[in-house]
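Backbone-to-sequence.
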């Protein structure tokens, strides 16, 4: 699943096809020196590490370390992305590239795009990065990204010192601050609709959906016989296939009107929506009704259920 593009690069989810790349990267001397030995020595071990340390995080957090490829190519040359470690208070950006692709600005280009994605798409207001005191090259990249050295410490569970850098977006005094529950739910609803927008060749934000939802979220389509119920993975995979296969083009969906009701730690938003796009080279347009149910968590409001029904078209 593609996550984002830069001028020269594409970032996508890792898949089982990337095991050989993972095996090579994790055994590069630079990785072993600056990141650590993950004891991955075979393709089977690389496959297991890829699934448990990379892919599983996509479904839990809606982010992770993504494969970095040159535009128009599928072969990975590095990894870059955002994760939230248990040992740090905020999400952090990280990257690593095969030595053959050093010195070309790829790390800075990919990491810069990830910072913007983290703030604009995932709603992160502060992003960290860690590196070793002896890794001057990485420190230079982080400073060029506008990150500031915040502390030098030993993270829990480790013995070596780590430099912690921090980045925050430039304040926007005109941007609305979603303080009330209703405003936060409206902002979350707006982000939900943007997940599927691929107009003018834009990369849809679909991979970030898990960050908006509870892990046990359910998607239910009514109005066509028996209701069709999907879990998070099934819902995402069906829509990702439409995008990756090029079947759904210039698509957008937006809210026409709605209202929100908050019941303590639960809330619901009823709305009418419109959509338009090209499905298999045929114009698809219409309207319908949605009901989004929310639960307040320690991380803020999250979507627990999405119900929708398309209005019949002539």
């Amino acid at each position: 699943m593609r996550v984002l593009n830069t001028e020269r690069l594409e970032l996508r989810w890792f898949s089982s096809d990337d095991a050989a790349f993972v095996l090579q990267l994790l055994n590069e001397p630079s990785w072993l020196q600056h990141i650590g030995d993950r004891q991955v020595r075979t393709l089977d071990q690389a496959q297991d590490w890829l699934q448990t340390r990379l892919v599983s995080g996509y479904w839990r957090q809606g982010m992770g370390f993504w494969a970095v490829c040159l535009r128009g190519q599928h072969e990975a040359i590095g990894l870059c992305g955002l994760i939230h470690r248990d040992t740090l208070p905020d999400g952090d950006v990280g990257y690593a590239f095969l030595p053959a692709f050093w010195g070309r600005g790829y790390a800075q280009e990919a990491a810069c795009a990830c910072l913007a994605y983290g703030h604009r798409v995932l709603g992160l207001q502060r992003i960290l990065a860690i590196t070793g005191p002896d890794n001057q090259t990485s420190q230079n990249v982080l400073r060029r990204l506008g990150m500031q050295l915040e502390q030098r410490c030993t993270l829990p569970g480790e013995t070596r010192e780590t430099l912690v850098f921090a980045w925050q977006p430039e304040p926007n005094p005109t941007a609305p601050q979603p303080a009330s529950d209703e405003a936060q739910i409206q902002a979350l609803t707006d982000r939900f609709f943007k997940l599927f927008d691929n107009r003018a060749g834009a990369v849809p934000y679909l991979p970030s959906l898990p960050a908006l939802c509870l892990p046990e979220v359910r998607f239910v389509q009514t109005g066509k016989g028996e209701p069709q119920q999907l879990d998070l993975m099934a819902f995402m995979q069906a829509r990702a296939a439409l995008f990756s296969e090029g079947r759904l083009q210039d698509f957008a969906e937006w809210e026409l009107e709605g209202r929100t009701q908050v019941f303590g730690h639960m809330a619901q938003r009823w709305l009418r929506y419109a959509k338009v796009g090209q499905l298999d080279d045929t114009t698809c347009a219409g309207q319908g009704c949605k009901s989004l149910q929310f639960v307040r968590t320690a991380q803020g409001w999250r979507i627990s259920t999405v119900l929708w029904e398309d209005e019949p078209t002539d």
